[in-house]
Design a protein that fits this description.
This is NAD-dependent epimerase/dehydratase family protein. The chain is α/β, with parallel strands linked by helices. The chain is about 35% helix and about 20% strand. It starts with a strand and ends in a 10-residue tail after the last helix. The C terminus is likely disordered. The structure holds uridine-5'-diphosphate. The site of uridine-5'-diphosphate has 15 residues, from helix 5 and strand 8.
Length: about 325
């Protein structure tokens, strides 16, 4: 039987991955750790499984007395305003968190890590294949996130090379969907919460910057397949996301169609905001045959609006969630 630890299990993505892990019958015990910095207890409110033990602890403070067959490290903020507000804590979660969690892995265990398309910085090639080394400013405003994810990748690939640790690393492009915090600050959830409040929908700069918007269910399908269903020892890094590239302003206009009271408001551009982002999915299609993002951003936005309407009752005090 398998003992599993998921770090960041109360987060947006972590809680969805936890739901998939709980479908597995071979798992005897599943420790969920989360410091509830960006994660929410509410994301785990539906969990009622005797195998699960939820602990409020930082990833970098996990003890290595108990060791695990599988470790999933998703404990990091992913939204720019959140990681920019506490950059050193972000570095700690990714770099020290990875080192500390590695120490809790059994000798033949498997370590799964969610890295980011931010490792490509403001990319000079499009779409971005995994072999692209990126265009990142190590002293820029996004460095705490970009560089700490890059460093975590380096730690894991060195652990593999020097100690034979089994690793699986994905690079996630933009993900959105249910269980995002209302005060998360990323584009889709911001536009929806603004629309629900009837306030202006804020587009930073002209909005011509592009992203590739992946709906959470499609992304978690890929994680499930890569992390445990396909049995190869391919370590990644593997791009995961939707390869339909859409300008931010187009998403804003799409959301606004649901909320005619809200106007689009253009604010100052964000310094060093990447101009474009689109995954090259050649490797993903090879390793996860049959996997595709099935849900368009339009359908994903519609579903996310329904979720926000049904679930987030008090948008004026999101901290109470
Ligand atoms: N963005 C925006 N208005 C918002 C939030 C984000 O125009 O209220 C823009 C942001 O500047 C970026 C894009 O939307 O160009 C995606 O931002 P997000 O924070 O979702 O993700 P990331 O920048 O990490 O890709």
């Amino acid at each position: 039987m398998t003992n599993v630890l998921i770090a960041g299990g109360a987060g947006f993505l972590g809680s969805h991955l936890l739901d998939r892990l709980l479908r597995r019958k071979d798992i005897a015990r599943l420790i969920v750790i989360d410091n509830l910095w960006t994660g929410l207890r509410n994301n785990l409110a539906h969990i009622n499984d005797p195998r699960v033990d939820i602990q409020q602890v930082d990833a970098e403070r996990v003890d290595s007395v108990t060791t695990f067959d599988e470790i999933y490290h998703l404990a990091s903020p992913a939204s720019p305003p959140w990681y920019m507000a506490e950059p050193l804590r972000t570095v700690s979660a990714n770099v020290l968190g990875t080192l500390r969690l590695l120490a809790a892995l059994k000798p033949h265990g498997r370590f799964c890590f969610t890295s980011t398309s931010e490792v490509y910085g403001d990319p000079l090639v499009s779409p971005q294949p995994e072999s692209y080394r990126g265009s990142v400013d190590c002293t820029g405003p996004r460095a705490s996130y970009d560089e700490s994810k890059r460093c975590a990748e380096a730690i894991l690939f060195e652990a593999r090379r020097t100690q034979g640790v089994r690793i699986k690393v994905v690079r996630l492009f933009n993900v959105f969907g249910p269980r995002t915090r209302p005060d998360d600050g990323r584009a889709v959830s911001n536009f929806i919460t603004q629309g629900l409040r009837g306030s202006p929908i804020t587009v930073y700069g002209a909005g011509s910057q592009t992203r590739s918007w992946g709906y959470v269910d499609d992304v978690v399908d890929a994680l499930e397949r890569f992390f445990w269903l396909e049995e190869s020892e391919f370590p990644g890094p593997l791009n995961i996301g939707n390869d339909r590239e859409v300008p931010v302003v187009e998403v804003a206009h799409y959301v606004r169609r649901h909320f005619p009271r809200s106007q689009i408001q253009h604010l100052d551009p964000v310094p060093q905001d990447p101009t474009n982002r689109r995954p090259d999915l050649t490797l993903a299609r090879r390793h996860l045959p049959g996997w595709e993002c099935k849900i368009s951003y339009e359908e994903g936005v519609d579903r996310t609006i329904r979720w926000f309407r049904n679930t987030v009752s008090n948008l004026h005090s999101p901290k109470s969630l």
